[in-house]
C-alpha cells in the first residue's frame, strides 16, 4: 500500500503549478460522491463541474457541511439527464474527464456510448483497476472487473490494449501482460486457455502492441517467479506481470475485491477506450479510492495530452 501512496504524493508534487483537470461529476447526489469530488479538487487534481439537480446537491452539501461556493453546478432533472449532459460536456471539450457520482453504472456508460457525444473510439470500453497490496512489492493492473461481462477474443484484445495504454501512460514503458486461466497449458475444454493462447499469438502478430503478452498463465505464475520455476514455465511475464487479464467479469471483480477487503489493498479505477478518462468507482469504495482514481485519470489525461498517439496505437490487422 505504501507504494501507491508514495507514487500518489510524488504525482502531486510533480503537478505543482499545473491546472486541475476540468471534470464533469455526474449526478453527485450522495455525500460520498460529492465529498470525493471535492477532496480531489482540494488536492489540486480536478476542477469539478457538478452535473445534477441543483437543490438536491445543495441539500447534500448542507447536511455534510461541504462548501459548494467554489464549484459550478449544471442543473439537470434526474440521473439520466445528468449523464447525458455531462457526456456532452466532455464530448465538446468543456470537460476533460467524467466522474461517476450516485447513479447506476449502466446509466453512466450509456451516455458515454451515444455517438452524438463523440466520446467513443474504435476500441471497446473496459475497466482497469490499479491495485497496490501491502504484501506485494508493486502496484498491478487488473482488467476487466466492472464493464465487460464475458468478453470474446476480439474484445479481450481491446481490453489488453486499453490496459497497456494506461500502463504506458503511468510510466511503464513495456508492460508485461498475463492472460489468466486456471492452468498454464492450453486445454480445449477450458475456453479461457484457448482465448489466452490466441491473444498471445495476436500480440506476436502485432494485433496488440506496446507490451509483452503471454498466456494462458495461472495467477501464481503471473505474480511469483518461484512458482514459475517450480512449474517449469519460462516466460518474460512470469513473476513480473504488470497487467492481469481476467477471463471474465466474475474473476476480475472477485480478484480486486478480495485484495481490497481482505488484504487491505489500495485501488484506483478508470474506464479506458473513450476519448477522455472515465472515473468509475463503486458505492462501497473508500474516499481514498475515489481520490486515487481521480489521480490516475489525471495522470492518464496529462500523458495523452503530451503524446496523443497513446490513444491510437498502430496495430496490424
How many structurally independent domains? 2
Count of beta strands: 11
Structural class: alpha/beta
Strand order of the largest sheet: 3-2-1-4-11-10-5-6-9-7-8
CATH class of the largest domain: Alpha Beta
Assign the CATH superfamily of the largest domain.
Answer: Isopropylmalate Dehydrogenase
- Binned strand content: 15-25%
* CATH topology group of the largest domain: Isopropylmalate Dehydrogenase
> Element order, helices and strands?
HEHEHEHEHEEHEHEHHEHEEH
**Residues in helix, %:** 40-55%
First and last CA, distance: 40 Å
Question: Whole-number average pLDDT?
Answer: 90
Instruction: List the uncertain runs.
Output: none
Largest sheet: 11 strands, mixed
Radius of gyration, rounded? 19 Å
In the CATH hierarchy, the architecture of the largest domain is 3-Layer(aba) Sandwich
What is the count of helical runs? 11
**Globular, elongated, flat, extended or rod-shaped: what is the shape?**
globular
Describe this structure in words.
It contains eleven helices and eleven strands. α2 packs across α11 (287-306). The protein is an alpha/beta fold and 317 residues long. The longest helix is centred in the last third of the chain and has 20 residues, at 287-306. The model has no long low-confidence stretch (mean pLDDT 90). The chain has an eleven-stranded mixed beta sheet with strand order 3-2-1-4-11-10-5-6-9-7-8, sandwiched between helices. It is globular and about 60 Å long. The protein has helices at 2-14, 31-42, 54-64, 79-91, 105-113, 153-169, 191-204, 219-223, 225-231, 249-262, 287-306, and strands at residues 21-26, 46-52, 72-75, 97-100, 126-132, 140-143, 176-180, 212-217, 243-245, 266-272, 278-279. It has two domains: 18-120, Rossmann fold, CATH 3.40.50; 121-273, Isopropylmalate Dehydrogenase (3-Layer(aba) Sandwich), CATH 3.40.718.10.
Amino acid at each position: 500500500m505504501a507504494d501507491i501512496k508514495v507514487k500518489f504524493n510524488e504525482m502531486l508534487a510533480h503537478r505543482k503549478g499545473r491546472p486541475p483537470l476540468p471534470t464533469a461529476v455526474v449526478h453527485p447526489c450522495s455525500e460520498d460522491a460529492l465529498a470525493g469530488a471535492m477532496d480531489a479538487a482540494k488536492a489540486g487534481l480536478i476542477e469539478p463541474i457538478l452535473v445534477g439537480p441543483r437543490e438536491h446537491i445543495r441539500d447534500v452539501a448542507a447536511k455534510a457541511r461541504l462548501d459548494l461556493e467554489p464549484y459550478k453546478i449544471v442543473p439537470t432533472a434526474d440521473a439520466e439527464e445528468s449523464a447525458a449532459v455531462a457526456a456532452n460536456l466532455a464530448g465538446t471539450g468543456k470537460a476533460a474527464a467524467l466522474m461517476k457520482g450516485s447513479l447506476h453504472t449502466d446509466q453512466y456508460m450509456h451516455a458515454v456510448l451515444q455517438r452524438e457525444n463523440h466520446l467513443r473510439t474504435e476500441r471497446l470500453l473496459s475497466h482497469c483497476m490499479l491495485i497496490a497490496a501491502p504484501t506485494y512489492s508493486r502496484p498491478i493492473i487488473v482488467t476487466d472487473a466492472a464493464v465487460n461481462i464475458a468478453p470474446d477474443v476480439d474484445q479481450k484484445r481491446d481490453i489488453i490494449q486499453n490496459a497497456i495504454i494506461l500502463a504506458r501512460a503511468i510510466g511503464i514503458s513495456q508492460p508485461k501482460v498475463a492472460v489468466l486461466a486456471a492452468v498454464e497449458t492450453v486445454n480445449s475444454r477450458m475456453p479461457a486457455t484457448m482465448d489466452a493462447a490466441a491473444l498471445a499469438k495476436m500480440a506476436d502478430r502485432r494485433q496488440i502492441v506496446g507490451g509483452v503478452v503471454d498466456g494462458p498463465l495461472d495467477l501464481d505464475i503471473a505474480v511469483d517467479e518461484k512458482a514459475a520455476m517450480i512449474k517449469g514455465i519460462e516466460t518474460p511475464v512470469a513473476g513480473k506481470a504488470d497487467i492481469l487479464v481476467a477471463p471474465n467479469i466474475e474473476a476480475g471483480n472477485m480478484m480486486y475485491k478480495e485484495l481490497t477487503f481482505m488484504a487491505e489493498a489500495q485501488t484506483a479505477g478508470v474506464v479506458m477506450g473513450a476519448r477522455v478518462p472515465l472515473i468509475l468507482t463503486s458505492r462501497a469504495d473508500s474516499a481514498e479510492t475515489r481520490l486515487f482514481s481521480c489521480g490516475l485519470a489525471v495522470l492518464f489525461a496529462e500523458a495523452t495530452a503530451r503524446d496523443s498517439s497513446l490513444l491510437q496505437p498502430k496495430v496490424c490487422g
